[in-house]
């Protein structure tokens, strides 16, 4: 059986792996939600919002890779399958169909807000068991919060 | 209410939009499945398979954008949300956890096979109602079949 | 006298060359119309529309080169001179002077709509006489329809 | 009504805006003429002339953008529509159909000569009312004259 | 024994694989013929023809890769060995030794003409059994015909 | 003591150095003002204005380098320190705090207008004493006026 | 009124926002001081110091953007205007006029030393209220300290 | 005598400098060990392992530069000479001669494991005396652990 | 008749031209053989071998151009036609059909071995008559021997 | 006989062509002088001066091309042959042999000073007969004066 | 006095330094001759020859740098000043004024022929005293001979 | 047991492999010595020397890869481990601690001198047994001698 020499004791590993799996699911869903709105947004701000959403997609895709590979690095198998994402994401359901630019922006503010709240808890939870993982989560949080500001400012 | 001036009559549009929505779901799932295995593969061929899977991810992400934006172009709202993908993808369930390189390759052969079969049906279905959409689906099929070969050859 | 060894019989060539010459004129005019509005647009969406129009210009310029060189390839001299364009373009007249962003977007929706309708006829007309030409026209149509969606969405 | 805070008094503005509108029309036409010959040239020097013409097209397209945006900058709406170009260009009519490489070169010498003569008058006319506009026109003239030399040398 | 899950029934596969093998041989030979002339051309148009031939080489090399990998994709082993090419190419024999630029151009017109004629037959033959393969062959044909024009124009 | 061999006589040098020092201060301040608004802008046009302001920052930074190094070239020490800028800039005070997108655009129109007026005086003043310096100032003025147009058009 | 959903409680936010505003002012001033010396340095080490100073300018500009946007992200309006910088920067006054290379290096050692001391206090102050902000400040401090070493080594 | 103004008190500096010197030696040796195996590996996985080892070399070289320059930044002379490395590296001796791919991978797992254990101790040791140094060491640890996973997975 | 001013006397030229013609044929065949196996390889090392073979193709294509143009430079017409290659290559026949990765590697070891042996003879033969040609052949030999090692190591 | 249609009357052309021929000779010589010192400089500032001189070489080479092609553009044959340069350059003789860095810098200050003085006369002379040529000479002068400052500052 | 530790004994050094100084002069002159013709060529092959000459200029400039720096490396001061070049170049005088394309090509054949003959003597002369220098001269000769072929072929 | 088909007889191989192993050790050590000084240099020429040393590091790293892989190519296992380097390098010991720029340069002159002397012996030794290896060693020697000159010139 495949076992990675994890640098962390068992108890710490449990905390860290939950944080990473949770972050993975949120980030995969964030990438799907942002793409969904990217395709469905309409209204005078179409082009700006359409492009801004792809910036989020690119961020989310890079971050999901970082956290999934961090999990593998610690010997914990990451799970980013569609059903897992659908069942455990921290982002609320996005309605189907066309979405007005203003609502698109509002929807992203809410989605990012939900993810950021959970990410900050993960930053706190991983500080003692694994500062290496915490450092990755802090950098991701900083980036998500920047996107969060930009959508808020756009509806300011 | 937002209505796009679609160049297709209603009946044709229905056929085409079903083909595009189906293709979208398959391609989003393909990108998630390939990433899942990319993170979980182990074995002597780890590096080759790990990299080969990212080629599939890149293809799938480009193709999903193409079909979703084609749907929007025809005035049909695309749906690429996690739950929709989880419920309607043509790819069978992938087991969680580490996966041996040989099984990883086999799993990709099966997943691509499932998608290709459905894509070929969509190519046939769209020929008359919209050769423009058909042309996009043909190009996607050609690319998926090339990936399919490469994984088969790798287990040959 | 210069005669190209055309791979098509005379009757087929006539159909195909009319399609190509028509497409050429429409595409040259589309590039000029989009530039005209690019320079004259005003209003809060100025920057978005200004940039979006240059995407159309770039597309139109590439496509006009493709169709003109396809005509030459078949031994038919293409005609993209200003007077020919002014006289036979399928795009209606654009008013001179400053244009509000909303009207600019509407004007592009109409212009693209006019060209797309004619391109679809050309796709149908060339299918039997020359599938090679048809394939080029299909790809151009797909691209124009994508621009068409983006402007519609922007006024959605 | 949209009015730009022009840095120029009314009388000066009139002179400058005529120079810019004239330059715009000549440059749009130059780009169309060079493309027309690019597609229709034949003869042993085909490849050289074909490529050299695209250098002119690229120059003309950049310069037309410069002068049109300079007009907008001064609060004067530029007009680069096909009919306007067909009616007021300083370049004589180019015959339709295939053109021998030697004649193609000669035709470009004549076309550039016509535009350069008018550009030099515009340089002189704008010196006092607006040295900023003059500076742009001088740079464009230098570039056109360089193309002019290259075609003359090629028929030398 | 290695067997690819081909998406085509046996009879269709036979037609398609013959088309692909034939195209492969023609394209490999085209790349060798163009290089041969690239090295042996002399005369006042040396540099133009020398460079133009390398454009053909680059095209032919990309296309041969496309058709060979398409064959592999369908489970048919491609054969691009020197002897196979020498025996079954559709291009007539090229004489050894220096070749005047005018004759070099004429030789390429003939070689391309021979290949194009066979490619058009393959396009027709593959339409029903495999539109995916046909689409690749159409794109290759379009590119070869463009090269064909350019050499004809150069001797025009 | 360090003395540069200036190509200008003393009296001319005085005029030119005042023009350059004034331009330097205006351009440094323009870069700070544009960044300030870049960080504080809110409203539906957030993204467009945010990006457009960085175009101004980039222009201003390049131009400030040009004029400062031109001063050094003529043997005159340039002064671009914060206090100097705060005391002698030609741009009026910008209010602190968040700024609505429409006001942001208006504020840039005013700031650019103030700088352009002074730059045109410098262009006039340097014509006789140093055409080399004048040429640099003309190019900077052309660029600032283009930004000026774009912000006016955005509030048009 | 525009209010950002800040992830921090009020008291924490006050500490963090003071740290960010202080950092912003120091970094803007650092960029101006380094440019000032970049333009005024003389002596045998001119080229080395001239280039080394632009490395500092580039760093300072990137860091000022990071901290200002971090403030906006937390819902605090950043203030980087010239007068604010002139009044509250932690860098002592730089004398006007030419500066010998050795003094230029010494001046940068002092300026960087002043900023680094304050940055280390901000790193300490933000640790508890916002580790995300702290992480950004740590990275900036590391970079400034590296520049500090390089100037010290250059006068070593 | 050359003394850097270190931002750390003497006691803290001692701890930090030992951590940095230790990290430097480990990283230089890691780069040499990985190159040694890169040149000597044989077996069916030759190419994968050969390339994967160069990824480690590149990482190790970047990290060694970071820690050595951090030491210099704190006023501590770094020592990366061959004899120092040979005497104090934390990596066990690598046998000379050809090495089978499987053993090569195992050897890298062990080498990375040894370095990671020591890096984690350094992360802990530097937290209080210098969070800036700690932050650099955390990032290096994260990267080494990722390489560690990849080699473990490859023997999984 | 076209005669190049060759810098070599007749006898030397004969030796050198035979070396170059032989090298040309071997290198063209090497490029075809490597492509053939690139398309037909199967087995767990598929991806590694598939990519490694394209490195050989790229090398062989560059080298064949070098030697053919060296022949032309010396006034000797090079012959790289398919039939010439099929008849005079130093590489033994490669069997048609799918080839297991291990056999593919073995086949390349043999093919490279055959070419290298002949290249070393050419290096020896050209030393006295033309050190310039010899220098080119030495560089090609070094590169082929490096490929030779890599395939041997892969079957080690 | 080859005659270019010059846009200038004979008398003006004479003035302008003398200015251009003089500029050409000075610039060719400047490129040779800077290279000469680039190869012969020694002393502690070797690397800085060695690199700085190549910046001058690059500038001089670009400018010489500009003025020579401007002459051709006006129908005047430019003369940049070694003997012409040796006989009519405005730069004084440079001594052969190694040159200390300080003297190298001084030598460049003198050489640039000589060329700049002559360029300023040419700027004045061409203002009336050809503002297009004048504009090119002004830009070259600005660049040479910047190099002049940098060498003066380096000996300041 | 500056003395380089030359790796060569005095007698060998004398032979090698003469070869390098001779090569330097020839290559500087070749770059000037090729530029001279680049500016003065006329005729139907203008563009081809104009571009081909710049390839020679680029080669000559790189090679002159190589040989001059090789001389410096051996402790011998290189001399590439205009007068030295004018007096000792191996290339015969080029006539001033416009030159027909055919004569331009012939002139380059002669110039290259003259330089190549001397380079081959230098290759022979340096073999024993310094194989390192010889290797550089061989590579330069190979490149010049390739240019020589291309111009001969162009007049073939 | 792994045995490479070496193209050299046993006796020749022994000479060549000693030359390669010696070169490998010298080059690895050169890269470490240059990095050591890169980190420890101080003084007014800090930046120039710091950068110049990284040029040596880059060269040494490329060359060590070349010689190690050449050894592997000939079937001889290369040994570049730290202890081997520490024990058999031809470079004398470098003192630990800060080093003044002048001494740094002197130290590099000595180190390069030591390596070059040995490389020249290897060039001589390998000429007969393997001209391919000799050619690689000649190119490396040329590059090292160029670095040697640049450091001597910098202390000239």
UniProtKB/TrEMBL annotation, chains A, B, C, D, E, F, G, H, I, J, K, L:
The protein, known as: DNA starvation/stationary phase protection protein
Top-rank taxon: Bacteria
Pfam family membership, one: Ferritin
InterPro entries named among the record's database cross-references: DPS_DNA-bd (IPR002177), DPS_DNA-bd_CS (IPR023188), Ferritin-like (IPR012347), Ferritin-like_SF (IPR009078), Ferritin_DPS_dom (IPR008331)
Annotated GO MF terms: ferric iron binding; oxidoreductase activity, acting on metal ions
Domain Ferritin/DPS: 18-153
Database matches in Gene3D superfamilies: 1.20.1260.10
Family recorded in the similarity comment: Belongs to the Dps family.
Listed transmembrane segments: none
Organism lineage: Bacteria, Bacillati, Actinomycetota, Actinomycetes, Kitasatosporales
């Amino acid at each position: 059986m495949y076992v990675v020499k994890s640098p962390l004791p068992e108890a710490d590993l449990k905390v860290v792996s939950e944080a990473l799996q949770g972050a993975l699911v949120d980030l995969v869903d964030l990438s799907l939600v942002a793409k969904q709105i990217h395709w469905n947004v309409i209204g005078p701000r179409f082009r700006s919002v359409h492009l801004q959403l792809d910036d989020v997609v690119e961020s989310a895709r890079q971050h999901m890779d970082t956290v999934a590979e961090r999990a593998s690095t610690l010997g914990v198998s990451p799970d980013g399958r569609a059903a897992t994402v659908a069942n455990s994401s921290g982002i609320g359901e996005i309605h189907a169909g066309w979405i007005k630019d203003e609502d698109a922006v509002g929807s992203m503010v809410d989605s990012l807000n939900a993810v950021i709240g959970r990410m900050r808890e993960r930053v706190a939870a991983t500080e003692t068991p694994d500062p290496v993982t915490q450092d990755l989560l802090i950098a991701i949080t900083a980036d998500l919060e920047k996107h969060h500001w930009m959508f808020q400012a756009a509806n300011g």
